[in-house]
Design brief:
297 residues, alpha/beta, 3-stranded mixed β-sheet, 19% strand, globular
Length: 297
């Protein structure tokens, strides 16, 4: 009897046939890093002994914003507030699905007031359904949305109870995934959605528990599997519009596999923001519109 090869495809061995990709216009919420600095450490990337060059951080953030605009996307701005240095990581402040807003409840006191800033923005901009959560969740840091699933990270920040709360609020199936490596403290450091319409993702298996790796392999058998050097460069902290994939430029091992699948990788330098433990996705919250069909009468 022949031997079955059960080794998952690596990032250098894409299993999908290249095809033409279509970008979908997106609406993003971002916050300028006017008050960004690293004066405390709440993840392994943060070292208060390494000062931030604020002008460089702002220039790198502006480059990311301008790239979104050049690709035809809409960028809304959240006003930064003094004393909240991590507000630049706007993805953590809420999750928006079908125009409905699940607010954040941060695990660390240093970031608690960011949730209020996000809620104020959504109220001011006419979002009709805004839920203030009872349980700890850190927005799109730990929630990744595809057409079929809401993938939800837990283990360092967001809790299992928050996953139940999200499923009840959004009315969409939530799949809990256990993170086990503190470097990948949020789901968006270990997994990226490449095309939400077709449930295509890339992820780094080493960030997840054995059971969660098995779940991911079952749900996404053709996923792009990242290798450790690219994950360690935060290469999975990426944003895709279904065609263009913006990701840290240091994650060079992901570029050719993405091209082989028909995507267009765009390398970004957010080295100063990496000192806070975030990159492209951390700076980018997606405002997903309500595309649900009208209810039958």
């Amino acid at each position: 009897m022949g031997t079955r090869n059960t080794r998952p495809p690596s990032a250098k061995e894409p299993s999908l046939t290249p095809r033409t990709r279509d970008a979908a216009p997106r609406r993003y919420l971002m916050c300028p890093p006017e008050h960004f600095r690293v004066t405390y450490s709440i993840n392994p990337w943060m070292d208060p002994a390494k000062p931030v060059e604020l002008p460089l951080a702002l220039a790198q953030w502006e480059d990311l914003r301008d790239r979104y605009l050049a690709l035809g996307h809409t960028v809304e701005l959240l006003d930064p507030r003094p004393g909240l240095p991590d507000m630049v990581f706007a993805a953590n402040g809420a999750t928006v699905v079908d125009g409905r807003v699940l607010g954040a409840r941060f695990a660390y006191a240093e970031r608690t007031l960011e949730a209020e800033a996000h809620r104020d923005w959504f109220h001011a901009h006419g979002f009709p359904e805004i839920h203030e959560p009872e349980h700890v969740n850190e927005g799109e840091g730990d929630f990744a949305v595809t057409s079929s699933w809401t993938l939800a990270g837990r283990g360092f920040r967001s809790t299992s109870a928050a996953h139940d709360e999200a499923q009840e609020f959004f009315g969409r199936p939530v799949v809990g995934l256990d993170l086990v490596d503190p470097r990948y403290y949020h789901l968006d450091t270990a997994l990226a959605v490449l095309d939400d319409r077709t449930d295509e993702v890339m992820y780094y298996p080493g960030a997840f528990s054995p059971g969660s790796r098995a779940v991911l392999a079952r749900l996404f058998p053709d996923a792009l599997i990242a290798e450790e050097p690219d994950a360690a460069a935060l290469g999975l902290n990426a944003v895709s519009d279904g065609r263009h994939v913006l990701l840290p430029q240091a994650a060079q091992g992901l570029f050719e596999p993405l091209r082989a699948r028909g995507f267009e990788p765009i390398g970004m330098d957010l080295g100063e923001l990496l000192k806070g433990g975030g990159s492209v996705k951390c700076c980018t919250q997606e405002l997903r519109p309500d595309l649900r069909p009208e209810p039958r009468t």
